[in-house]
Amino acid sequence: MRFVFAIVAFVLAAAMIVLGLAQRTVFLEPNSISLSTTVTGDAAYTVIDPSALAAYSGRQTVSLSGPGEVFMAFGRSADVDAWIGNDAHVDISLVDGELVATDTAATTDGSESDTDTSETTEVVDEPQTSPVGSDLWLDEFSAQQELVSAINVPDDISLIVASDGVEPAPSEISLSWRVDNGTPWAGPLIVGGAVMLLLGLVLYLLALLHLRRSRGPRRNVPRPRLPRLPRPPRPRALKASEITGPRKSLNRFVVIVPVLTISGLVLSGCSAEFWPGGGDPVSGSSSTASPTPNSTDEAEDATAPAPAAVTVPQLERIVAKISTIATEADAALDSDSLTTRFTGPALEQRLANYKIRAVAPEVTASAAIPASPLVLTLPQQTESWPRTVMTVIQDTDTTSVAPTALVLSQETPRDNYLVEYAVQLEPESRVDVAPAIVGAPLIAPDSRLLLMPPDEVGAAYADILAQGEASQWFDKFEATGDSFRSQVAERRATAIAELEITAALEYTSTGGSGRTLALATNDSGSVIAVSLNEVETVSPVAEQAVVGPEEGSVSSRALSGIDESTKGLQSTYADQLLFYVPAAGSDDKISLLGFSQGLISSAELP
User: Where does the DUF8094 domain lie (predicted)?
Assistant: First the structure.
């Protein structure tokens, strides 16, 4: 029976091992599913919509090929559609399990006309724009002729594919998804077969031992005597090694073969895919889009807030680009480069600094724009344009420098974000704002829900700068911690003290070149950015008297180009101011969060 059990064990072992190996070979399913299509026509853009990207679950691998440059980016579907606008493009969607490409002709009236890809579509001749480097994209990739990229994007994300915005977009498009082709029973079967093989081997050896013992000495039994016959000649005895070879070597080989066989089979089942609950077969490095809120309840709720204009990683890339351009432009006094990323009072102040430093290089440059890290991000809740985003950056290399607050604006989908305000924060600035993924609504300039309407804050603060405690608005603003107010008062007092008897000095304030931008805070208040122009006029009060820039004012002389005048001089200082305004009815006061000031003009009076 021992031999029977051993044979049964060998048969079971062979069956289990063969079945386990078959699951990893002949029965193994493909590890990916692919869909592909070929785009025809001359459209410069191709949009892959969410239905195609969500054809199967898991990460998507996008393969693109074309004759020249291949570019791909992904962003929110609404942002991609807004960037495309009315330009001719190809939409790729999922229809009956297949990718279908549909030409969409360019229109001039805001409507779109869809036609089948086999038909010729008349395209309106409109200027094309390259999508490379747009601030709308969550991430982008580019290559020559062929691009393969693994991404992991949630719902409501679309891909835009292009060449250079002029040449036709890449024609060969393929999407693939890794699927779980793991064989969780392959490992147990192979290892179990190896154990059964070892068990069969043990049973076989026990059976052989039992058989050898059964042939040992037995009791003597009387035998009948037979007549003795002549003894035949005895042949020469042969050694055992001459028949079977060295017995010791044979035994070693018999033992080694099962051990090697069992070890190989066991090691072949060590991969995670061979076992139940093994590792994720579709894991791997890829580019992942930041998730966007898209629950069904929110989609059905008409009162759900609009999404945040940007994500934190998206804004980090934008700020890094701005920092690079600002640093290079500041060093080279390159005004053309600066205008690609600055606007409003931030641009005005830096351009004036360039003019001054071109004449007087010893003048200090405007405050640098750090690249990272972003310690606060407050994007506007919106799906339309223009868009506003506020962020605070702390330069980790120079901790003695105050954090920089930027207020960015984007006018249209194809415009980049521009720095409209760049201020240094006060040391004790604190404000409670919503998380970056939620964002904040933009407050109307004339809103009465605040302690003071945003468009009145600048004028009220200018009145305090001019009259001090005599201003009717003095009690509305927090004086403690407002270092800008004391700096202005000190500068004006010094100028008056140094004024000649034959000259008169006058200060007036006007609205600056920047818009009033206000974003809501968690306590129903608002962070408000405003700009002011402080105009300083020095005029002679006696005949033949002359006036000039105050002593040591290199900046004024550099901008005006004169040392003295009989008509008078007028200098304008631009103020960028960032305030916190409490909600209406609050007992708190309006506080200054940060500021930046710079001389922007100096000229002789007419």
Answer: 309-600
